[in-house]
């Protein structure tokens, strides 16, 4: 049993003893003492390191020059100059298309879309150009150096256009990767991996956690593996899978369920496509029950893909139907946000009814 | 007395924004007609706009604008009301009664008021998210505004839209759009429908200098020009796209020229009479010839939204400079007092009344309840096909059939 000394947001050391996920050699132990940082500072550090280590890395997007609306890009323009860190006009389609071109010549193009809600004009570029570039040119060309960063998710009062979770749309596109971190320490490592990954990546950052999540983050250059899920807490009764800000809600539900004697295993998917089926499968084969939770609307959300795949692989081991606690099938509401969101109580309810099936 | 033209693509951030009101007044005195009495409705005044219109591919309208004391008074009243409303919204936001994002229009009131003076409620206006004052101009009430901002049932969108989504169908106000630039193709579609129904009306589709770099603007412009639609694209150029100055975002900040084959007109957006003249001209033009671009040179005192202090990318001196030299409400106040239409005291009394009206509306809006939880599911699809989700995992849906 993993020593559950860690509570969400306070990680004492980098070295993780995980029973289930395959830990590869990417992680390094903390060599310097880690500093306490919030999410936007961790991302800022990652960007500084990325630009430092690769002279052909560029950061661009709307308003990034002065630091960006969430301060993720502070100090970059001053340190690396206006030729590497620059504002673009207000044109998402143009930004991503331009980034694809830049990446096609071997550069690392780190494009910022100001809010994930605005990524749709660029959808065509991502789906039709970025995802298929390597494939259709028979590996002559690729835009692997492209990383698109966008803040996503509810923020308490964002309303229709500052709260959306569009990850499911992108998970339907072979050729790109979709990565979502849950915390500052994860974000820094995952972002560096995304930037250095030779495939185009869409990196969604949970905006609610920009200031809220504070954690010890090592100051050195470290990368976390992509396409590997991480088991956050071990359990035997039910597996919970989620990503991003939702994990903290799920963790609270797990703690409450523990009081009722239900042992929950919590897994952070981290990379949504290509996703780590083996880790989830191993876990579900052990517990026999699965609950998936995400903020995006339930119909057609990525939970549906996980559910279908796990049913294919683990049908005979399932003790109860797979359950999804997600946002409702409505536009993201303004005043109704508390009703829309997949809250701790809804998850707890579902845990109990699944375990008691 | 030559008045220098506004430099169209100057890269200096501050100097081209500030053109003194005094220049306007010195012209008006030369064309002033004698007035009989202050509140005489039948008098026509001809007042010159502060600056001549700059045009692209068309003949600009005359600088001499016909107006009347009554109209000027109404301009003052409406703009002062809008100003007061926006400032009240600012305080409500800080008191956390308004949540979400709130984009304020103070400084730009002349555009909304001038436009209304030139058109009817059958013409359509569609704009972006800085829509509180446009809504008011289209006949919205203060109660509807504040209730919608606070997310209450009495709001114009039943509390479900919020600050960025005000609509008034019966008065031709099509909103209220959060996604930048998305309203422009919509506006061209409205214009097509108007042309088709032959009712001699036009659509004004407003957007900002930030949106001027969106691809869909040019797509819509091409369609409107191809089919000769009565669409007037109004670029409310407040010189900053959120935090980015226009010269850093656009190779050519002469937005009125960017239509190329579509003619354009550059207007001093802080002068309500110039706006009125331009919109009148634009409506006549569009009904005969097809689309036109109006660039309103205006300014916002607040930041982009309430989350933006507005001072990290521009100096406080610039903001106060514009407020001193070009404020639209002050300009009309000076016109009224210099033409003896109203005294300072009368204007101050009007402002007091406005304050009271705003406070009352806020109090009334606070009384209004939040929308019912079942409203979460209504109007996703058509006609009350309300769907409710229930069950332990909220996955089961129950639909109410019509």
UniProtKB/TrEMBL annotation, chain A:
Keywords: Mitochondrion, Oxidoreductase, Transit peptide. Its EC number is 1.2.4.4. It is found in: Mitochondrion matrix. GO terms for molecular function: branched-chain 2-oxo acid dehydrogenase activity. Coiled coil: none annotated. Its main location: mitochondrion. It comes from the Eukaryota. It is an enzyme of class 1 (oxidoreductase). SMART domains: Transket_pyr (SM00861). One of its GO terms (cellular component) is mitochondrial matrix. Residues 37-212 form the Transketolase-like pyrimidine-binding domain. It catalyses: N(6)-[(R)-lipoyl]-L-lysyl-[protein] + 3-methyl-2-oxobutanoate + H(+) = N(6)-[(R)-S(8)-2-methylpropanoyldihydrolipoyl]-L-lysyl-[protein] + CO2. SUPFAM superfamilies: Thiamin diphosphate-binding fold (THDP-binding), TK C-terminal domain-like. Pfam families: Transket_pyr, Transketolase_C. This is 3-methyl-2-oxobutanoate dehydrogenase (2-methylpropanoyl-transferring). It comes from Acacia crassicarpa (northern wattle).
TrEMBL record, chain B:
GO terms for biological process: pyruvate decarboxylation to acetyl-CoA. The keyword Chloroplast does not apply. Residues 305-326 are annotated as: Disordered. The keyword Cytoplasm does not apply. It catalyses: N(6)-[(R)-lipoyl]-L-lysyl-[protein] + pyruvate + H(+) = N(6)-[(R)-S(8)-acetyldihydrolipoyl]-L-lysyl-[protein] + CO2. Residues 78-373 form the Dehydrogenase E1 component domain. Residues 314-326 have a biased composition (Basic and acidic residues). It is an enzyme of class 1 (oxidoreductase). One of its GO terms (molecular function) is pyruvate dehydrogenase (acetyl-transferring) activity. Its EC number is 1.2.4.1. Keywords: Oxidoreductase, Pyruvate, Thiamine pyrophosphate. InterPro entries: DH_E1, PDH_E1_Alpha_Subunit, Pyrv_DH_E1_asu_subgrp-y, THDP-binding. Its cofactor is thiamine diphosphate. NCBIfam families: PDH_E1_alph_y. The pyruvate dehydrogenase complex catalyzes the overall conversion of pyruvate to acetyl-CoA and CO(2). It contains multiple copies of three enzymatic components: pyruvate dehydrogenase (E1), dihydrolipoamide acetyltransferase (E2) and lipoamide dehydrogenase (E3). Tetramer of 2 alpha and 2 beta subunits. This is Pyruvate dehydrogenase E1 component subunit alpha. It comes from Acacia crassicarpa (northern wattle).
